[in-house]
Amino acid sequence: xxxxKSGNGTLVGIDGxxxxxxxxxxxxxxxxxxxxxxxxxxxxxLMGPSGSGKSTLxxxxxxxxxxxxxxxxxxxxxxxxxxDRRLAAWRARHVGxxxxxxxxxxxxxxxxxxxLPLLLTHLSKSERRKHVETALAMVGLSHRAKHHPRTLSGGxxxxxxxxxxxxxxxxxxxxxxxTGDLDRKAGDEILTLLEALNREHGKTIIMxxxxxxxxxxxxxxxxxxxxxxxxxxxK
Amino acid sequence: xxxxxxxxxxxxxxxxFGLMSIPQxxxxxxxxxxxxxxxxxxLVGVLSIAVGFKQVMTASASPDAAIVLRSGSDxxxxxxxxRAETVLIGDAPGVARDAQGPLSSAELFVxxxxxxxxxxxxxxxPLRGVDRAALQVRDSVKITSGRxxxxxxxxxxxxxxxxxxxxxxxxxxxxxxxxxxxPVVGTFSxxxxxxxxxxxxxxxxxxxxxxxxxxxQSVYTRLNSPASFQQFKDGLTSNPQLNVKVLRQSEYYAExxxxxxxxxxTLGILIAGLMALGAxxxxxxxxxxxxxxxxxxxxxxxxxxxxxxxxxxxxxLESLLLALLGGAIGGSLAYFAFxxxxxxxxxFQTFSQVAFAFKxxxxxxxxGIIWSVLIGMIGGLFPAIRAARLPIxxxxxxx
Lengths: 235, 399
What we know:
The complex is a heterodimer of chains A (235) and B (399).
Chain A: E1 10-23, E2 26-39, E3 43-47, H1 54-61, E4 69-74, E5 77-78, H2 84-94, E6 95-98, H3 110-115, H4 125-138, H5 154-166, E7 172-176, H6 184-201, E8 204-209, H7 212-215, E9 220-225, E10 228-230
Chain B: H1 4-20, H2 26-59, E1 65-70, E2 81-82, H3 83-90, E3 97-98, E4 101-102, E5 104-115, E6 122-130, H4 134-137, E7 142-146, E8 156-159, H5 160-165, E9 174-177, E10 180-189, E11 199-202, H6 203-209, E12 215-216, E13 218-222, H7 229-237, E14 244-248, H8 249-293, H9 295-304, H10 308-338, E15 342-347, E16 352-357, H11 362-389, H12 392-395
Parallel strand pairs in B: 6-11, 8-10
Antiparallel strand pairs in B: 1-13, 1-14, 2-12, 3-4, 5-6, 5-13, 7-10, 8-11, 9-10, 15-16
Helix pairs in contact in B: 1-10, 2-8, 2-10, 2-11, 8-11, 10-11
């Protein structure tokens, strides 16, 4: 196994997690008895070939899916035991998602996209605006606030996606191939931004990637292959 | 965190995204809205026929007016009363009187054939012979042009409904029936009531022309007050010289109109029901396509923490809004196309034509809106459930 338990400061604790998908009569074992700890303030890169279960693991950590067996604890809370409703509320409070294809609302301008997660809070309109301005400033897109996604470049759209992910100041930032759809230059800028969020703002980041260039920017890299973790890249 | 306000703001945002994406699916959305508008327009349109017909049949009947027929007869057509009986009825307790005597009009009528303006084909029109008290008995009757016929002469006055539906009934024209000629000397209105579909003359003249001797078919009376009806009815039914049926005019006309209104209402609901079935499938299709076009959007919102309940409600809400729009269009269409549309139909009870106008009432419009809401609910429910059950993780990656 790749991990040593770090005791204090553990933010994410994956314990004996198994994930089995049923496809017709066939059972597909994606994750097998997997353990992983991520400490607060870490920038972890999760690597592996296609179909190795990286995204599945990220979905389990983000509360988008539930393990077939085992436990997922985030900041001491067993999230696989929460009801769907409480899990949705938990996601809103604790997790910021960054998607490979940005997943922005095409009909909303950048600032309104960033504001979305704040609609789930009790913040007033003016407070929400302040948070949105701060988040957009952090990703360097204040001047593009009123632009719709289709008028933004891929890199800019991903920055909006990151601003949306950090606007609620979540405990955990989960990035699924954040540079997968970008050219090298734009991808580098996104990685630099994530690095800064980790180093300067102390954000705990888990990033799924298959790009060694991207994982090199992380503070630690683990490799997933056939449902198992290792510290070594897959041969 | 999760309060009702928060929930409402979730619903309103998701609904807003749905509505904002309508331009991208305008074809399907428009066909659904038009489908629902069609259902509501047909429903309201057809039912407005029944409402208009019933309104005409009952409009002129005031609560203090009664009609007396021979016992066992369902309509004036099959009733028969002698002069002596009509006098006894006029003298019964509860009948209002004026200086000339009781407000009681012994009447008879015959059917005559006249060509309809619209088709040129002949149809039945009642030619009614009335007594002097006829205008007091029905205080809604007003001469609108020309004058009242002269008693003892074979002159007629024509109801405005009949004048509108049939040709050759203008003032100064002549109604020719068999060897008789009946000059038209005036027209009259009756607050939209059934009398407007009739032609009136002196009862005695009509009796002579049609060899009716001194017999009548009905007696129309005005009572002292609506409460006098029971006294009047008891007085007549307990009189051994009489064998009569006593009804309030309103009851009589409601019964007369029942066959037609039931027929039209049943037919209207049947047709609209079949169309509604089609509209439900249209709505289902639109909402399924709305959900599938927004699969990734909905999954993203769910990932961000929006609840599945809010997704269900907002998909339903979108469907309801489209249905309401359809309902409003259909209702307006029915109102502008059908309200006060004049026509006439056969009253099967008397085999005579009744002129009436379609009536699109507020109640009918509400009924139409209720239908559209139901279509919207049914059409939105299953797509809403599908949206809420989307597996988030897989749906997030959909293109």
